[in-house]
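Anyone have tokens for Beta-lactamase family protein? Sequence:
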Amino acid sequence: MKKLLSFSFTIFLFTSSFAQNFNSANLDSLFNILAAYNKYMGNVAVAKNGKTIYAKAIGKADIETGKDANTDSKYRIGSISKTFTATLIFKAIEEKKLTLNQSINTYFPNVKNANKITIGNLLNHRSGIFNLTNDPNYLKLNTIPKSRTELVNMINATPSIFEPNSKSEYSNSNYVILSIILEKIYKKTYPEILTEKIINQLKLKNTYYGAKINLANNEVNSYAFTGIWLKQPETDMSIPLGAGGIVSNPADLNTFIAALLNGKLVTLPSVELMKTIKDNYGMGLTKIPFYDHIGFGHGGAIDGFTSLLYYFPTEQLSVAITSNGNNYDNNQILIALLSAYYNKPFDIPSFTEIAVKAEDLDQYLGTYGAANFPMKIAITKKENILIAQATGQGPLELKATAKNTFEFIAAGIVLEFNPAIKQMLLKQGGGKYTFTKE
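Reply: yep, here.
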């Protein structure tokens, strides 16, 4: 349910390219090394014109039993659920059961500012309603079943954090409320509505509203890596509803996003509204660039699960990632998958590390700039650890992987120094930038 955050120096480049051949070998090498170094467990799929052109599962469905994941394994998808929920809301609008501009006070008169908050405000995170997953006690409560009334009381316990429609701020509470509104207008449970209006319509075989994880049903547990893979607690699925409660796999997710963006679930005018970005958020969709290509979709995170789903309409290309354990950024997996399709270079990370002395790092220290890069990068050290910090971003601790070469592996960043000429080469996601020490 948490919004998936990505940290990195770079932004995607902008040039024109199209893949003639899908580079599956490079992807296989990447996933093999990620598995070998305990960096990633998950399932990915790439589809073109509705046909899967690449699928891969790595890691375990369950560490304790040693059960392997497979390409049909099912994962909690977290906030990708919001795209499903937004689709259901637009279906209700097209059925004349709701309007974007109506206030929510009919359904929730006790929610603060209910007379000012619209359905549209909930969809694009402009309601001002407090995000229940930001509650300091949330992780003490999220494994305990909650009634709909208890959920609303949890949300309403904290005052509004801004005036409705004055700005955008991500809040899972918005989509919990939207889920309950759907239940009120259809007089059915959210899982029933989801099944009837999306799952059955698209004949999705591995998608449903979640319950307690069932390994016998080819579901997977989630993990965090702390030197070993540590199983994570399960959020009780009475809580996330349409904000983060759906289970699926990449093949089904690709089918869903392609159907949605092509107007097969709601009309194309509704899709355009969903795609319209205001202060970083659409209505159930976000937007990403890759070179000169634009994709629409969403990310997700719940417990130890993370996920990404994006569709590139021009190429009829969909890419889905579901993970049940990683200490390697999902954004780098996405870049690798897209690079394989668009025939762009992608460096396979090195997870080897060499020892360096504190005094050896002095030759690299300073501030570096590049004419074609929007930020300067300050290189400092803490004892024998080299630290890079781009303008306006947090510090990153780098690992020495070769002479004059340092990496921040989680984001796929490689810095190669040439102290003799006071230069630094930054590599990430196929992009290369030459910096000069000031």
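The first strand starts at residue 40 and ends at 48.
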